[in-house]
Design a protein that fits this description.
Pfam family, one: Peptidase_S8
Keywords: Hydrolase, Metal-binding, Protease, Serine protease
Helix content: 10-25%
Biased composition (Basic and acidic residues): 365-380
CATH architecture of the largest domain: 3-Layer(aba) Sandwich
Oligomer: single chain
Protein name: Serine protease, subtilisin family
Number of domains: 2
GO molecular function: metal ion binding; serine-type endopeptidase activity
Strand content: 15-25%
Structural class: alpha/beta
C-alpha cells in the first residue's frame, strides 16, 4: 500500500458511522461518496473505520461533512517530538570500561530483577524516529520494524531520539555500553517521525494497526500534540481493547494542566519525569491525566552511529515505564494488561514532595511490582484501570529487514552514580 504524500494541502481523516470495509477493502459506496466530493489519494484506515485523503477545496470538505454516513471529519494534523535537553552526544565508551547500569534503571529497581526475568517473550514497539539498526547495544534485540515515512526504506533512525528511547527500554545485557530496563525484550522499530521528529496522525494510526498485526504487547509513544484527534483516540481504544499497553510521554511544557495527546487519553499510561533528587523535572507537564513518573533527567542511553547520548525529557521517563511493563509482564505472562497496570500503579512509590497531578500514582518501581506479584496479588489490586472496547483487527503488510549480530566485548556491569 502506498502512503499518503504529506506535502499536499487539505489532508483529512474521515471516519464513518457504519462499517465501511470488507476486510481491508473500502466498500464501493464509500469510495463513490468520497470521489463525489473530490477526494484524492484515498488511503484506508480500517483500524478506525475510516480513510485519510486529500481535498483541493474547503467547500468539498464542508459538503462531505454534512453527509449522513460521516461520523468524524478532521485534519490530518502533525505530531512532533517533545523538545528534549541534550546534555552530551556522541559519547564513546572505551572497551576497557564496564557496562553501565544508568541511574534511572537502578532507581526503578529493574536491575534487581534480572536474575529472575529480563523481559523475554515481550514485544515492544517504539513509534518514533526509527532505531539505529546496527547499534551493538540494540541490534540483538531488534526483531523487526516498518517505515511509515519512507516505506521503501528500513526504519533506520535519522534523528537519534528513537535509538535513545530504545536503549532505556531494552539495551542488551552484553557486557558493553549500557543496559535497558528489560534487556531480554524484543524491540520493533516503527518509524512514524522524520529526521526532524515530525509525523502525522494517520501514520500513527497505521502504525498501531501494524503493531496489532504483529502481536505487539507494549507500545512506546514519545511524541504528541496539544490538539486532540478523534481518529487517533479511536485507534488507541481499539488496540488497548485488544490487550495492548500504550505508554506515552506527558509532554515537556513544564506547566499545570498541560498533558498533551495521546498521553491525555484515559486508555494511555501518561508519564511525567523526575530528577535524581526525586523532584519533578522542570520541563515535565502536569495534570490529572498523569499516571506515573520515572527518571527523565541526564539519562545515558544509546544514540545513533553506535554511540551513546545523555538526554533529558519526558520521552526518557516514558521509556523507563515501557521497559518496566515488559519486564514485569514477562514475570507473569498469564496476567492481562489491566492486571499488569494495576500492579504497576499500586506498587508505585509515592514521592512526598509531589502532588497527584505531578506524579499520578508515583514513581514506577519494577522491584516493588515484582514483590506484589510474588505475593499473588497481581489480580486483586485496587487502583482502577480504564475500560476499553475491542474491535475487528486491521491488517497491514509485514516489513522485515536483515539483522547483523555483535558478540560481547567486555565484562562486568557497574551502576552509574
Amino acid at each position: 500500500m502506498k502512503l499518503f504524500a504529506h506535502h499536499e494541502k487539505l489532508s483529512n481523516i474521515v471516519l464513518f458511522k457504519k462499517p465501511a470495509f470488507d476486510g481491508n477493502e473500502l466498500r464501493r459506496e464509500y469510495q463513490d461518496l468520497l470521489h463525489k466530493h473530490g477526494a484524492t489519494r484515498i488511503e484506508p484506515l480500517p483500524l478506525v473505520n475510516g480513510v485519510v485523503c486529500n481535498f483541493s477545496l474547503g467547500i468539498q470538505l464542508r459538503a462531505l461533512g454534512e453527509e449522513e454516513e460521516v461520523a468524524v471529519l478532521e485534519e490530518n494534523l502533525q505530531v512532533k517530538l517533545y523538545p528534549f535537553e541534550v546534555q552530551s552526544k556522541n559519547i564513546f565508551l572505551e572497551q576497557e570500561s564496564y557496562q553501565i547500569i544508568p541511574w534511572g534503571i537502578h532507581r526503578i529497581g529493574a536491575d534487581q530483577l534480572w536474575s529472575q526475568a529480563t523481559g523475554e517473550g515481550m514485544k515492544v514497539a517504539v513509534l518514533d524516529t526509527g532505531i539505529d539498526l546496527h547499534h551493538p547495544d540494540l541490534q540483538k534485540n531488534i526483531a523487526g520494524g516498518v517505515n511509515f515515512v519512507e516505506p521503501h526504506l528500513p526504519p533506520q533512525d535519522d534523528n537519534g531520539h528513537g535509538s535513545h528511547v530504545s536503549g532505556t527500554i531494552a539495551a542488551v545485557k552484553n557486557n558493553y555500553g549500557v543496559v535497558g530496563a528489560a534487556p531480554g525484550a524484543k524491540l520493533y522499530a516503527v518509524k512514524v517521525l522524520n529526521h526532524k521528529g515530525e509525523g502525522y496522525f494517520a501514520d500513527v494510526i497505521r502504525a498501531l494497526a501494524w503493531c496489532l498485526e504483529q502481536g505487539i504487547q507494549v507500545v512506546n509513544l514519545s511524541f504528541g500534540s496539544n490538539t486532540p484527534s478523534h481518529a487517533l483516540h479511536e485507534a488507541i481504544r481499539q488496540v488497548t481493547g485488544k490487550g495492548m499497553i500504550v505508554v506515552a510521554a506527558a509532554g515537556n511544557d513544564g506547566t499545570t494542566r498541560s498533558v498533551d495527546y495521546p498521553a491525555a487519553y484515559p486508555e494511555v499510561v501518561a508519564v511525567g519525569a523526575v530528577d535524581e533528587k526525586n523532584r519533578l523535572a522542570s520541563f515535565s507537564s502536569q495534570g490529572p491525566e498523569i499516571n506515573l513518573v520515572a527518571p527523565g533527567t541526564r539519562i545515558l542511553s544509546t544514540g545513533n552511529g553506535g554511540l551513546f547520548w545523555r538526554l533529558s525529557g519526558t520521552s526518557m521517563a516514558t521509556a523507563h515505564v515501557s521497559g518496566t511493563v515488559a519486564l514485569i509482564w514477562s514475570m507473569a505472562p498469564q496476567l492481562n494488561s489491566d492486571q499488569i497496570l494495576r500492579t504497576l500503579y499500586s506498587s508505585a512509590e509515592r514521592l512526598p514532595d509531589l502532588t497527584r497531578e505531578q506524579q499520578g500514582a508515583g514513581m514506577v518501581r519494577a522491584d516493588h511490582a515484582s514483590q506484589k506479584l510474588s505475593r499473588g496479588k497481581g489480580e486483586e489490586l485496587e487502583t482502577p484501570v480504564m475500560e476499553t472496547t475491542g474491535a475487528d483487527q486491521a491488517h497491514e503488510p509485514s516489513h522485515r529487514f536483515p539483522l547483523l549480530h555483535f558478540g560481547p566485548l567486555f565484562p562486568g556491569p557497574v551502576r552509574e552514580q
